[in-house]
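Work Package 4 report. The design task specified in the project plan requires that, given a folded chain encoded as structure tokens, an amino acid be chosen for each position. We show below one input record used in the internal validation round.
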């Protein structure tokens, strides 16, 4: 029997097996007080700024899953520089955005159960106007980078999902 959870977005129940770990905001936004957040943060579900100097894009970090065709995607945020942020906004609805070279970024979320992942170097790849950008980690000795390179088991995917279920 599927384990069902109530979705905060739509109010319906979804199978945990169909869900993926997702971060709603960059960690540095969450760390702000409600007053600071109201004063400094401009955000929507895809883009976020803190003041006039920090820029974030919501993306997915795909992990290949053994025995599955589709990857398990961790929905997270990356920090980009101002010029990359402007370019991403400019191309957001462009059907040819996937032709843009990748942007150098840093992961903006720590994933529970792993060593700190915030700050890991990566590249952000635009994929199309109806899909979230994709993040590929730089080759470093970090468990998340190793999982992206070598893949994970279905059990490990479930462990990620259960972090919020």
């Amino acid at each position: 029997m599927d384990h069902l959870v109530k979705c905060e977005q739509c109010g319906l129940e979804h199978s945990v097996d169909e869900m993926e770990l997702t971060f709603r905001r960059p960690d540095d936004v969450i760390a702000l007080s409600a007053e600071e957040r109201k004063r400094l943060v401009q955000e929507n579900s895809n883009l976020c700024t803190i003041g006039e100097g920090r820029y974030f894009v919501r993306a997915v970090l795909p992990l290949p899953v053994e025995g599955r065709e589709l990857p398990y995607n961790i929905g997270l945020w990356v920090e980009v520089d101002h010029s990359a942020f402007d370019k991403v906004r400019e191309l957001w609805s462009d059907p040819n955005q996937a032709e843009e070279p990748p942007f150098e970024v840093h992961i903006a979320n720590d994933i529970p159960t792993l060593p700190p992942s915030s700050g890991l170097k990566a590249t952000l790849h635009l994929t199309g106007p109806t899909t979230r950008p994709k993040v590929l980690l730089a080759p470093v000795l970090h468990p998340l980078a190793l999982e992206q390179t070598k893949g994970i088991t279905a059990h490990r995917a479930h462990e990620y999902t259960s972090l919020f279920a």
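The chain has a mean pLDDT of 90. Validation will be extended to a larger panel in the next phase.
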